[in-house]
Design brief:
By secondary structure, the chain is mainly alpha-helical. The protein has helices at 2-6, 27-31, 37-54, 72-79, 86-94, and strands spanning 61-62, 83-84.
Amino acid sequence: VLLNHCGFDVDDDRFLIYGCQDVPGFDAVAKGEKVDIEKVTPGMVAMVRKLLEEMPSLRAILLECTELPPYSDALRAEFGLPVFDAITCADFFIS
């Protein structure tokens, strides 16, 4: 669907698509519960650190879930990479 509608091929090796389901505390999303942002933030940072070790050529992070914007600033501060989320993308389109 993404390739047909957006020209985006999820199998393109330039992109690394990774889920947050294994980040401690983020399972609250699947349970429909409130996410403890302070508890989850270190896990998000650790996950991205691991991904950057595996693929150091990463140049930007896209957080596609609407539950993820609270972690954007921590990722920007830790890694110095551009981080795009639902809020930054909406700001871009509005501007």
